[in-house]
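Sample 1 of the test manifest.
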Amino acid sequence: MQTPDLLHQPYWQTMGPLLVVTAAAFLVMILEFVFRKGDRRWLSAVSLAGAAAALAVAIWHYFVEPQIALDTMVTDPMGNVFSVLILVTTVLVLLFTWDYAGQVKVAAEHTYLILFAVAGALAMATAVDMITLYVGLELLSVSSYILVALRRGSARAVEGGVKYLLMGSIGSAVLLYGMSFLYGITGSTSLLEIGMGMQDTWASYPTIVLLSYLLLLIGMGVKLSLVPFHMWTPDAYAGAPSPVSAFLATVAKAAAFIMLLRMTLFMFGNNGADLFYWAGFLAAASMIAGNVIALAQRNMKRLLAFSSIAQAGYVLVPIALFGTSTPSEWYGLFDSIAFYLFAYTFMTVGAFAVVHVVARARGTGDSDALTGLCQRSPWLAGALTVFLLSLAGMPLTSGFVGKVYIFADAIHLRGIWLGVLLFVTSVVSFFYYFGWIRKIFQKEPVGEVQRIQAGPLMHTLLGLCVAGTLVLGVVPSALLHVLQATKWF
Amino acid sequence: MSPYWNAYLYVVLFTLFGLLLPFAALWIIGPILRPNKPAKGKLTTYESGLEPFGDAHVRYHARYYLFALLFVVFDVETLFLYPWAASFHQLGLFALAEMLLFIVMLAIGLIYAWRKKVLEWT
Amino acid sequence: MGGAGSVAIPAQSLLALAAILFCVGLYGALTKRNLIIVLVSIELMLNAVNINLVAFSRLGVAPNLNGQVFALFTITVAAAEIAVGLALLLAVFRLRKTSEVKDLDLHKW
C-alpha cells in the first residue's frame, strides 16, 4: 500500500471514539504517576471526561456514511449504535467508580484500566477483521481480569479474578481455534470476505464450518457467561468491587454481544439456518439455570450475577431466531436486541449501585441487609424497586418493553418454544425479585432505624438510571424510532 | 512410500545413533579406559567452581518474577519489530510513525513500572 | 519447507498435531489441580492454535501471510494473559499459601 493511501484512510471516522478513549486512558495513566500525593479522586473525573468526550465523538459520527479503514475497522450503523451503548454505560460506570473511590481506598489503576477495557470493547464493536476482533476482545478481557483482582489484599477478589482468568482464557483459546479453522478454509481473516465466500465454503467443508461455528459460540458463551459456561460469573461479580461488577455485567456483555452478532451474521448469516439453533439451546439453558439458581442465592451480588446470566439468555433469543427468519426480518431482531441492552444497562448499573450502598452501610452483602430499606432511605428503596421491577419485566418499565419485543419476535418468527420459555422463566424470576421488594418494604421490628446516606455522585448516578429505566418504559418510542430508522447492515 | 514418510527413516536412524553414542561412551568404553580413584572433592556436584550449598529445591524469590515480566514485554515487542524492520522500505514513513507510537506506549508502561519501584532491588 | 531437497509435510499431519495439542491442553486445563499446570495447559491450547494458523497460512485453501500475522498477535496476547495469570497466582499464594484450584473455595452459595 502506498503512503498517500494510508494517510487518506478515514481513520477519524471509523476509530474516533476508540482513539479518544485510548488517549484518555494513557493520559490518566501518566497523570497518575506524575501526581502521587494527596487526594486523587479527580483522576476518576478525568476518566469520566474522557469517556464523555468519546461519547460525544460517537454521537457526532453517528450519521456519517458507512466507511472502512485498512479493511479492518468500519463505521456502520450497527457499530455506531453499539459504540454509543458501550460509551453511555461507561459514563454510568465511571460515575459509580468516582463515587466508590471516595469511600473505599482503591488502586488508582482502577480508573484507567476501565478505559483500556472500553477501548477493547469499542474495537469489538467496530472491527470486521478476526485479528482485530480478537485483540479487542483480549484487551477487554485481560483488563477485566486485573480489575476484578485489583484489591490484592482481599482473598475473595483475587479468587474471583483467578477463576475469571482461567475460564476466560480457556474461552478465548477455544474461540481462537474456531477462528483458525475459518481462516484455513477461506484464506481470509476479514469477516466480509469470509461471508462472501461462505456459500462455496459451506458446500466444500460443511463439517469444518459447523465445528468452527460451535467453537466460536462456546468461546463467546464463556465471555457472555451463558450456561453451561457461566461458572466464573458469580464468583467474579461477588469478589470484584461493585463498579467493576456493574462494568462486567453491562459493557463487557454488550461488547461480546456485538462481536457475536457480527461474526455470526457476517460470516454465517446467508446460509446458517441450522447453525443458529445452537444459540437457541444456550439461550434456553441460560434462562432456566440462571433464574432457578438465582432463587437459592442469599448474597445480593451473587443473585444479581445469576440474574445477569438469565438476562443474557433473553438477549440471545433474538440471535437464535436469525436462522428461522428472512434478512428483511433481521432489522426487527436487531431493534429488539439493542433496545433490551439499553434497558438492561440502566437497570443493572442502578441495581449494583444501590446494592453497593446498602451493603456498605449495613456491613453485609446478605440480602437481609435490605430489610427496612424504605425506612432507612425512601429514595434508595424507591430506586431499587424501580430497577427490580424492570429486571422482572413489569409494565411501565424499560425491561417490560424490551421483553415484550423479544417475546413478540419469538412468537412471530417461528421460535415459539423460546418465547414460552422466556415467559415461564420470567415468572420464576418474580420470586426472587419480589422477595427483595418485600424485604425493602418490611418494617424493622424494633428500635430506632439507622438511616442510610449516599453522596451526591451516587444520587446523580441513581437519578440517571431511574430516569433511563422509566423513560424507556413509558415512552419507548423515543429510542425505538431511532433504532427502527437504523439500517443495521 | 511417499518421500514424506521416507524422511522419518532418517529421523529414526538419527535417534538410534544419538542414543547409542553417549551410552557407549559413558558405560561401555569409558569404564574400560579411565582410571578410577574416587575422592570426596571429585564426587560433589559441580557448580561452576563454587562449593555447592543447600538443596537443589530452593524457592526463587518472587522478585525475579517482576523482572521476568518486564523482560517478556520487551521480548514480545521485538516480535513486531522484526517484520516491520524487514519490510521497512515498502512501508515507509507512516509505518515508522506507527512503530514510534507503539514504542512510546511501551515506554509509558516501563515508566509506570519504574515509578512503582519495580526496578529497585531492596 | 519448500526449499530444494526438503519434503512437503501434508496439512493433515499439522492439523492432527494441533488437534492433539489442543485436546491435551483442554483436558489439562479442565482437570488439573495445580494453577501453574492449568496455565501451562492454556498455553498449550494457544500454541495449538498457532500451529493451525501457520499451517493454514502455508497450506490452506488460499495461502497468504494473514495467518502468520494472526499467530504473532496470538503470541503477544497469550504472553499478556499468562503474565496476568502468574501475577494473580502469586497474589493467591501470598494470601492463601496454596496454589491448588480446589482450595479456591471462599465463594459459597
